[in-house]
Amino acid sequence: MCHSIQPALYPGGEHVPAMKRKRSSEMALTESRKRASQRTSQSEIMLCPLIRILQQYGLLASIASWLFPEDLLALALTSKAIHQAISPRPCSLENLLGKLSCPGKGIQIRQKHHKKSMFFYAYDCSEYVQCGSTSDIVESRPCVSCKVTTCNECRIHCVYQSNYEAPSDLDELPSFSGFVLLTPREVPILSPQHLAAFDSQSSGPPWQNPSKGLNGPYHDQGFIDVPFDDNTFGPPEFVEDILNLDLGQHSLGVSISSNVPAPSPVLKAFHQITEQRKRQFCDACLPPTLAKRREGSQYMLCHCSLRKHFLDRWLCLRCYEMEEIAISKAYPAHIERCGCAQNSSDRVVCLWCSGVVPESKDEADVPDLDSDASTVGSSP
Ligand SMILES: [Zn+2]
Ligand SMILES: [Zn+2]
Ligand SMILES: [Zn+2]
Ligand SMILES: [Zn+2]
Ligand SMILES: [Zn+2]
User: Fold this and answer.
1) Is residue 257 included in any domain, yes or no?
2) Who surrounds ion ligand 2 at CB < 5 A?
3) Nearest ligand atom owner, CA of 68
């Protein structure tokens, strides 16, 4: 093989060894043919080293970790061969989506919905939101629904702790605030240290400026208070209690910490989203896909919690918004009562789990959590 390339390296003939010069005329035709065929086979290999790289999954995955989904799509659409290299099997693309860099869409969605209060601008507050694509310490995982890599900041949280205000005195605690889900109103967030009711032993290290330490931001923790622009009153609620509340047994229409009925202004946003998952059906109208029965013809009961539904599933904010829209449009005639107007007793069905919520609309809805006003946030 080596030998046959040599004549091409001596085109002038002057320095070509004698033996080679003698043979060159008789070989000319064969050589040129060989070269021609070599050129095509070489061009096949040389033309697309990119394809050869992309065909190796390890290399493809490490390239993908630097790409956003739209970059991968643009790359896949450049040629059929590249598309084939990226996605040789139907499941390959899904696997690859989980290797990409977080596209940062969730932070954009948060900024569109979350409105900073006048306090944010009146005081020396700072916002700390850092997408995992630009920070190594923010965890990323594939979204459970669309499979696109999503960082912890771009996925749904029940309480986003995004704002920080340094203490004005050294012996004071810093202030924290943020937002409930994608609702617009800024809410104060109290760290365990803010509430004397919490003994210092169990409250852990004091919360710090999230932009400085490795512990923050403090999503889904601490206590939330009445939104800044709300003049009504409600006791602070322990976020962990809100997240863990069995929504099949209890409603957030009542303050968890003090049993104050109403919905408390502190819980209003959570109350609204948990009520929105409920639909009313009489037995005749109940769709078989809802209210599934167990073997003994018993209905499956709802034991959903905000934690199970929102935090235990790694859901990107685009999918969260789509899910919420789908739920708000589902069974529109069954929101207040069953749409058939037969006035028989209705069953409440949870659209998150398709289980039955064993409650009567007219019954007093008081949670039996062991709590009273003086022990804010005692865990059940
Ligand atoms: Zn939106
Ligand atoms: Zn992100
Ligand atoms: Zn998603
Ligand atoms: Zn009906
Ligand atoms: Zn449920």
Assistant:
1) no
2) 102, 104, 131-132, 151, 154
3) 2
Judge whether 365 lies within some domain.
no
Residue for token digits 């850092």? Answer: 130
Q: Does the ipTM exceed 0.90?
A: yes
**Percent of the chain as helix, strand, coil, to the nearest 5:** 35, 15, 55
What is the rounded CA–CA span in Å between residue 241 and residue 196?
18
Q: How far is Cα 282 from Cα 299, in angstroms, rounded to an integer?
A: 14
CB atoms within 10 A of CB 222: 27
Q: Which amino acid is at 326?
A: A
Domain contains 44: yes
User: Separation of 221 CA from ligand 5 center, angstroms?
Assistant: 23
Query: Is 199 a domain residue?
Result: no
Give 319 Cα–ligand 3 centroid separation in angstroms. 4
How far is Cα 302 from Cα 264, in angstroms, rounded to an integer?
Answer: 23
Q: Calculate how far, in angstroms, residue 330's C-alpha sits from the geometric centre of ligand 2.
A: 30
What is the number of domains present in the chain? Answer: 1
**How would DSSP label each residue in 284-309?**
TT--TTSS-B-TTSPBPBP---HIII
- How much distance in Å is there from the Cα of 323 to the middle of ligand 3? 10
List per-residue pLDDT tens for the chain, 380 residues long. 334 333 333 344 444 444 444 455 555 556 665 665 555 555 555 567 888 888 888 888 888 877 777 888 888 888 888 888 888 887 787 777 777 889 999 999 999 999 999 889 888 899 999 998 888 889 999 999 999 999 999 999 999 999 999 998 888 899 999 999 999 999 999 998 888 655 555 667 889 899 887 788 999 999 999 999 998 888 999 999 999 999 999 988 877 777 666 788 999 999 999 999 999 998 888 888 887 776 667 888 999 999 999 999 999 999 999 999 999 999 999 998 888 877 677 889 999 999 999 864 434 444 444 333 333 333 33
Ligand nearest to the backbone CA of 140: 2
**Residue 70 belongs to domain spanning:** 2-92
